[in-house]
User: Which sequence fits this backbone?
């Protein structure tokens, strides 16, 4: 009994150290999402540019789309914005935005100063839709197929490497294109 009392704290300590080591080796941008392979959660929100108009999950029907969660106060959103502008002008993949926990005047000024890559921007000031979508923080980008099914979720800023390595192959596959070109 005396030996067990002596070794038990050492065993517990070793298990905790092992868990920390495993945790430190994981990529923090890879966050498993329970929504992958499931329909995009329903929403009905005002449109940023014209609050009398509504934006719903029906925007994703019939085309592979991106749904980008952003805010004017978000540094990561600023770092990915130039790439979103390029994708919006050089690609046939429509980008829809979810302006998250933001003030409307600040969001409008942000897009006026930086450009607007979005086909429509839903406003989620109170984070109700963000919760439904499992949003951890801004930026986050979802890839949604033509049937409204979520294919992929990126937590953190979109980069050119992530666009090429993660998004483009999934877009091609969702469209039934040959990805061995």
Assistant:
């Amino acid at each position: 009994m005396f030996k067990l009392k002596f070794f038990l704290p050492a065993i517990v300590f070793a298990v905790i150290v092992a868990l920390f080591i495993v945790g430190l080796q994981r990529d923090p941008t890879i966050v498993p999402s329970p929504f992958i392979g499931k329909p995009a959660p329903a929403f009905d929100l005002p449109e940023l540019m014209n609050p009398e108009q509504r934006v719903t999950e029906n925007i994703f029907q019939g085309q592979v789309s991106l749904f980008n969660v952003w805010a004017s106060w978000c540094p990561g959103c600023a770092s990915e914005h130039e790439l979103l502008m390029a994708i919006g002008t050089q690609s046939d993949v429509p980008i829809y935005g979810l302006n998250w926990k933001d003030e409307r005047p600040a969001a409008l000024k942000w897009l006026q100063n930086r450009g607007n890559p979005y086909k429509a921007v839903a406003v989620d000031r109170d984070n109700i839709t963000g919760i439904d979508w499992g949003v951890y923080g801004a930026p986050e980008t979802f890839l949604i197929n033509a049937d409204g099914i979520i294919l992929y979720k990126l937590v953190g800023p979109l980069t050119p490497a992530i666009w090429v390595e993660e998004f483009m192959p999934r877009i091609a596959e969702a469209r039934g294109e040959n990805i061995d070109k």
